[in-house]
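Section 5: illustrative case.
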C-alpha cells in the first residue's frame, strides 16, 4: 500500500515515514532541546543536536583524525581529502563539496542579501559577514595581538599584523624576487613591472 502526500505529491510505502513527512508541512516540531529550546520534527535530529552542547564528537576521520559531532559533517569533511565536489552551480559551473556552500554561492548571482544590520540597514549575503560588520557599531575587536596588544575585527587581520613582528614576508615577486608581508602590497608592486596605472586623476 502506498501513502500519498496531498500537499506535495510524494508517495511512501511506510506509514511511519508518511506520518513523519506530514509533520514537515505542518511544521510540527515536538522534540525540543531543553538547553536552547530549539525544536525538531524528528527525535534523532534532536539527539544529534544535543552533541553541540555536550561537545561530544564521536565521528572521527580515519585519514586525519579530525572529529565531528554529526556523521553528515564527517561525510562532508571527507571531500576535503577526496577533492570531490558534487554540488555544481548551474549558472557558472563552479562546484562545491558542501550543499550549503553552493546555496551561499548562488547569492552572488541572485544578489540576494538576506542578513540585514539592525543598526544601519546594510544587508549581506552571509550571516558570518553580518557578524563581523556588527563589530563596526559595537567597537568590538575580539582578536588581540599578544605581542603589542593591538586588536582587530577579524582573525585574518590579526594574522597579517603578526607579520610585522616576525618580519616574515611570504609573498614574493615572480619577476624580481622582492618580498612582501602582505599580498596587497605585492599586487601594487607588480604594477611597477607592467607600467600599468589603474588609478587616474579625474
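Designed sequence:
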Amino acid at each position: 500500500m502506498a501513502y500519498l502526500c496531498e500537499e506535495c505529491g510524494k508517495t511512501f510505502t511506510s506509514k511511519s515515514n508518511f506520518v513523519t513527512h506530514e509533520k514537515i508541512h505542518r511544521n510540527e516540531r515536538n522534540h525540543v532541546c531543553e538547553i536552547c529550546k530549539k525544536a525538531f520534527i524528528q527525535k534523532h535530529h534532536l539527539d544529534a543536536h544535543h552533541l553541540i552542547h555536550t561537545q561530544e564528537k564521536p565521528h572521527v576521520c580515519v585519514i586525519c583524525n579530525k572529529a565531528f559531532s554529526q556523521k553528515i559533517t564527517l561525510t562532508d569533511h571527507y571531500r576535503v581529502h577526496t577533492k570531490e565536489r558534487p554540488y555544481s552551480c548551474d549558472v557558472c559551473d563552479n562546484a562545491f563539496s558542501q550543499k550549503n556552500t553552493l546555496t551561499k554561492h548562488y547569492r552572488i548571482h541572485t544578489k540576494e542579501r538576506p542578513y540585514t544590520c539592525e543598526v544601519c540597514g546594510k544587508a549581506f549575503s552571509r550571516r558570518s559577514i553580518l557578524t563581523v560588520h556588527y563589530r563596526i557599531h559595537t567597537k568590538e575587536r575580539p582578536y588581540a595581538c599578544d605581542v603589542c596588544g593591538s586588536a582587530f575585527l577579524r582573525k585574518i587581520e590579526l594574522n597579517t599584523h603578526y607579520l610585522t613582528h616576525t618580519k616574515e614576508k611570504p609573498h614574493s615577486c615572480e619577476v624580481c624576487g622582492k618580498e612582501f608581508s602582505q599580498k596587497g602590497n605585492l599586487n601594487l608592486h607588480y604594477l611597477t613591472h607592467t607600467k600599468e596605472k589603474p588609478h587616474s586623476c579625474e
